[in-house]
């Protein structure tokens, strides 16, 4: 029986979507590594979490494949299989294109994305032995989540492997209701955009325990109370309060864990959340993606049929009208290399000359008859 991965490949191919040759050749295996994309605000602890994540995977005797997508990180705090810094020199890109730091990072990521099929090839070749493929992303969150290359990378990975988002939150910096809600709104926008299963990872819980966040997410009243007692919220308090109400539904769709990338606390909970998110991917995301591909294929088929029937109708009209047929026949035999439009004009002139000649000859005939 075909695996889900094989079905996804074949539905992509059948949908006549351009699938890179490398992906077509990629081995299709029963075992699917889970892809974890670490995203989060600058300084939230993504890279430290990556280090902890790979260490935990190794100590569980499992195999990770580690990819760094941050071109500006410098020295990596974790060992990795693919480093964007080996492919593009971020400082050189800035200099060459006259860009600032963010423009340089975006352009470097764009350049790297053009080679992403090779990354997929490498992952594909080893996917049998891999358990997790983990990605670190650039410091500025929007560079990955709101750029074309970020979307291409996310979508391509999600098409081929169970993919989950680990949204890393700096817990100490989110302890005021206003910053907390801003962070949640950002997470919501990413969830809405990607539709992928998301895990909220409250990091740095060795500094501030994340129990306040869990309470705010499950008990609306406690959040309202915090908003009332928060001087920072000020006149924005009622907006922050209403946002809390709006986001209640969103919280239900999320898995929440609190960890410390430094001490390693909470990593077991994180892996349990990843397992749940992978199941969610298989039951929700993948069927929705396959339906999208199917719908696209059907729409393409329908538009082809419509165009074909329109063409047939046009041909019927062309066949019935004598003048049209003559013109097209002239055109068809035009093999003298002359420009078609000129030829078309010449032909019109010829006809008018002929009819003028006919008229003159008819006049002469009448004059003769009258004599
Ligand atoms: N106490 C504590 N500090 C942490 C933890 N995780 C990260 N940090 C610290 O937070 C700072 C930022 O960590 P990074 O891992 O560089 O964060 P990042 O999100 O990768 O940063 P950018 O890529 O620059 O956006 C560093 O000083 C880390 O040591 C944690 O769990 N506990
Ligand atoms: Mg980092």
UniProtKB/TrEMBL annotation:
One of its GO terms (molecular function) is GTPase activity. It is found in: Cytoplasm; Nucleus. Its EC number is 3.6.5.-. The keyword Protein biosynthesis does not apply. Its main location: cytoplasm. It holds the Pfam family ATP_bind_1. Residues 329-344 have a biased composition (Acidic residues). Keywords: Cytoplasm, GTP-binding, Hydrolase, Nucleotide-binding, Phosphoprotein. It comes from the Eukaryota. GO terms for cellular component: cytoplasm; nucleus. Gene3D superfamilies: P-loop containing nucleotide triphosphate hydrolases. It is an enzyme of class 3 (hydrolase). Residues 311-359 are annotated as: Disordered. The keyword GTP-binding applies. Belongs to the GPN-loop GTPase family. Small GTPase required for proper nuclear import of RNA polymerase II (RNAPII). May act at an RNAP assembly step prior to nuclear import. Binds to RNA polymerase II. PANTHER family: GPN-LOOP GTPASE 1, XPA-BINDING PROTEIN 1-RELATED. This is GPN-loop GTPase.
């Amino acid at each position: 029986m075909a695996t889900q991965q094989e079905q996804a490949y074949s539905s992509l191919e059948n949908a006549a979507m351009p699938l890179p040759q490398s992906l077509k050749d990629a081995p299709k295996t029963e075992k699917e590594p889970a892809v974890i994309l670490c995203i989060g605000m600058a300084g939230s602890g993504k890279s430290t979490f990556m280090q902890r994540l790979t260490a935990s995977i190794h100590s569980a005797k499992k195999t990770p494949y580690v990819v760094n997508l941050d071109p500006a990180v410098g020295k990596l705090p974790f060992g990795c299989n693919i480093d964007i810094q080996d492919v593009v020199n971020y400082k050189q890109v800035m200099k060459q294109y006259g860009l600032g730091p963010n423009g340089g990072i975006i352009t470097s990521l764009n350049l790297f994305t053009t080679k992403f099929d090779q990354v997929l090839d490498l992952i594909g070749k080893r996917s049998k032995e891999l358990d997790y493929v983990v990605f670190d992303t650039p410091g500025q969150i929007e560079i990955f989540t709101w750029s074309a290359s970020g979307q291409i990378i996310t979508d391509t990975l999600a098409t081929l492997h169970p993919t989950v988002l680990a949204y890393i939150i700096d817990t100490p910096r989110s302890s005021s209701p206003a910053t907390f809600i801003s962070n949640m709104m950002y997470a919501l926008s990413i969830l809405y955009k990607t539709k992928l299963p998301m895990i909220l990872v409250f990091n740095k819980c060795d500094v501030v325990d994340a129990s306040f966040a869990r309470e705010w997410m499950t008990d609306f009243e406690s959040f309202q109370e915090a908003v009332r007692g928060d001087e920072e919220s000020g006149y924005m308090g009622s907006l922050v309060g209403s946002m809390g109400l709006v986001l209640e539904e969103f919280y239900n769709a999320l898995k929440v864990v609190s960890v410390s990338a430094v001490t390693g606390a909470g990593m077991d909970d994180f892996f349990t959340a990843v397992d749940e998110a992978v199941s969610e991917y298989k039951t929700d995301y993948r069927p929705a993606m396959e339906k999208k591909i199917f719908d696209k294929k059907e729409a393409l088929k329908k538009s082809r049929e419509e165009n074909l029937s329109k063409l047939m109708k046009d041909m019927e009209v062309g066949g019935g009208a004598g003048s049209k047929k003559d013109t097209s026949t002239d055109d068809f035999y035009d093999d003298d290399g002359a420009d078609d439009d000129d030829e078309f004009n010449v032909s019109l002139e010829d006809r008018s000359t002929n009819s003028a000649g006919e008229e003159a000859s008819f006049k002469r005939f009448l004059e003769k008859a009258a004599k």
